[in-house]
Amino acid sequence: MNKRCTCSLILLMIGIATTAVFAQEDFSATAVNLQAGKEPTRQSKVYVTKDKMRIESSQPNGHAGAMIVNFSTQTSAVLMPERKMYMEFPHGQGPGASSMKGMFRIGNADDACGDWRRITTAKPNTTCRKIGSDTVNGRSTVKYEATGENGKSGNFWIDPKLHFPIKWQDSEHGGELQDIKEGSQPASLFEIPSDYQKFQMPAGMGNMQHPQ
Fold it and tell me: From CA 54, how far away is CA 72, in angstroms rounded?
């Protein structure tokens, strides 16, 4: 299954900001990519506050970057520290969108399928059902199964205290949040530095996605 199918299957980025309920607990965590038969890769740092999320990642070449998601304005800002610049995109677009796979807010952890349908604009032939309680890395979760319009199924695990998924997995791809630390996060993490300049995307490149 290609990554585009995986995105639609396990509730990735599309329409994330349509859910009106914000995360109930501030927290930080490490996001890890999981692939069947391979060691975990691409670790990113995640910070979540009531209406915003920040993802920090570093590349093998030493370059670092961050994305700030504003759920209220339905926009994302990609920060480029080396150039002291940033780019803004509608939610779910931009070169950092793939870094957010599986990360979204949920209202009621015991009834997450309603939010799933709104978040993914689910088609009539897609399904979502609650499987029951489960434990992920020592945390209590509610496990769900979702089936995309291509017929492929996957699972996601909602932490009812965080109102946030802490694991998502299909037969080939997935991810999870590790080293979760609850507590207030510095407001500065979710603000664009005052000395950064906005980078204007050339015409026709506004829908640019992160390379697959």
Answer: 14
| Rounded Cα gap, residues 164 and 183, in angstroms | 15
- How does residue 177 score in pLDDT terms, banded at 50, 70 and 90? very high
Determine the Cα–Cα distance for residues 121 and 101; give it in Å rounded to an integer.
Answer: 16
> Which pLDDT tens digit goes with each residue over 154-176?
899 999 999 889 998 887 788 89
Residue 88, token pair as written in the block? 């803004």
**Separation between Cα atoms, residue 176 and residue 143, nearest integer Å:** 13
The per-residue pLDDT for 116 is 75
Token duo for residue 3: 């990554």
Nearest to 89 by CA among 66, 67, 104: 67
Angle (CA) 14-7-179 rounded to 5° is: 95
> CA 30, CA 44: separation in Å to the nearest integer?
6
Extended beta strands in the chain, E state: 27-35, 41-48, 52-58, 64-70, 75-80, 85-90, 127-136, 139-147, 153-159, 164-169, 173-182, 197-198
- For every residue of 70-125, DSSP letters joined together read ETTTTEEEEEETTTTEEEEEETT-BTTGGGGTT----S-GGGHHHHHHHHHT--TT
The model carries a pTM of 0.73
Residue 70's closest CA among 47, 94, 93, 54?
Answer: 54
